[in-house]
Amino acid sequence: MGRGDLTAAEWERLQPLLPVSNGRCGRWRDHRQVIDGILHRVRTGVQWRDLPERFGPWKTVYERHTHRLWSADGTWEHLLHQAQAAADAAREIDWDISVDSTIVRAHQHAAGARTTPPPDLAPKGAEAAEHQGETPWQSLLARMVKAVHEVRAWAARVVG
Questions:
Q1: What is the pLDDT of residues 127-159, one digit of tens each?
Q2: Which residue numbers delimit the Insertion element IS402-like domain (predicted)?
Q3: Dihedral over alpha carbons 2, 69, 19, 62 (to 10 degrees)
Q4: Helix (H/G/I), strand (E/B), else coil: 98
Q5: Whole-angstrom Cα distance, residue 116 to residue 8?
């Protein structure tokens, strides 16, 4: 198990929510291996072809994440909604929202600022500290939200 892979607790909660093969398309590669590859790609931003071999063929991971299988049929959205519902039923999600009506005007010299934030340069071991104290559902949901956002961005680039 590598850094950033699904933990045993996360996998136990996610496994029953995953689709099963219909048998017509042959045998599917291990879901856990592919999902770990997707999470690695989302976390590191590595090119698809540069995914480590431990995640299986890069094209399998790519197709299940973005192209044909799980994003096209809405599986990622469905997984996220099911996991959120299960975490909500276990009372592990705090749905309180804080809205602030404060207005802060930008300085006149802020007009030419860059539109994208600089890359996040987290120190080694920062991810472990980031998820410390979270329940397995919270950690899994946070990672699934990143994967769904990436699928949506990919779909928007394809359409636009």
A1: 555 556 677 777 788 888 888 888 788 777 777
A2: 6-79
A3: 0
A4: coil
A5: 35
Residue boundaries of the structural domains of the chain: 1-93+136-160
| pLDDT in the model for residue 50 | 92
List, in order, residues 6 or more apart from 34 with CB less than 8 Å away.
55, 56, 60, 61, 64
Question: Is this model's pTM higher than 0.90 or not?
Answer: no
Q: Can you tell me the distance from the alpha carbon of 51 to that of 41, in angstroms, rounded to the nearest whole number? A: 7
Contacts of 29 (CB under 8 A, 6+ apart): 56, 57, 60
Dmax over Cα atoms in the chain, in whole Å? 62
Q: Which two tokens stand for residue 146?
A: 């990143």
